[in-house]
Amino acid sequence: MVNIFIVIASLLLPSIHLALSRVPRTRGRVIRILLIYSLVLNVGVIGFFFGFIPHVFFADRAARLIGWPPGSPFQFEVGVHDGAWGMLGFLCIWFGGSFRVATGAGWSFFMLGATYGHIRDTVLSGNYAPYNFLMIFVDGFVAVWLLTLLFLDYRWNKCPTSSAPCLAD
Fold it and tell me: What is the distance between the alpha carbons of residues 101 and 130, in angstroms, rounded to a whole number?
């Protein structure tokens, strides 16, 4: 489950970044760094490399890993959707403010829906395929984590609607 390692990296890499940085670690800066890494890794990397590429180019294999029947044209749609969000996650490196809020809130909404879908498929169909059952925890965590970081960023950095860099950019 590569997605689990990406989520762990989204916690470890900003910690290393902050430990090596000479800039003071204010709570606003810590939250901002955690948020940017989470957007880039949990939205960008997961969306593009582990959503877009498998669903578009390896659709039948991805379907089997999720416990779905292969051959569905819906795989392509899901892949393009994930790829679009992945691009937005990467763009969060350069665009701040409301762009990050929209990217994080939108991806979180999708992840909460995906979590519900995986729970439903597990309960109703007994689908314990690794990329169905384990994604309940990954998708659910990412959604709650991003929403928490967005809230704390709004509360402590006070400029989510500005396109200009905030205190910790």
Answer: 30
Residue spans of the domains in the chain: they are: 2-56+91-157
**Calpha distance 88→102 (Å, rounded):** 9
Rounded to the nearest 5 degrees, what angle is found at the Cα of 33, between the Cα atoms of 31 and 34? 65
Determine the Cα–Cα distance for residues 25 and 47; give it in Å rounded to an integer: 29
Write down the pTM of the prediction.
0.89
Contacts of 143 (CB under 8 A, 6+ apart): 107, 108, 109, 111, 112, 115
pLDDT digits over 78-113, tens only? 999 999 999 999 999 999 999 999 999 999 999 999
What is the C-alpha to C-alpha distance for residues 54 and 48, in angstroms, rounded to an integer? Answer: 9
Quote the Cα angle for 131-134-139, to 5°: 90
Cα 3 from Cα 45, distance rounded (Å): 9
pLDDT at 1: 73
What is the chain's alpha carbon radius of gyration, rounded to the nearest angstrom? 17
Under DSSP, the state recorded for 92 is T
| Measured distance CA(160)–CA(56) in Å, rounded | 34
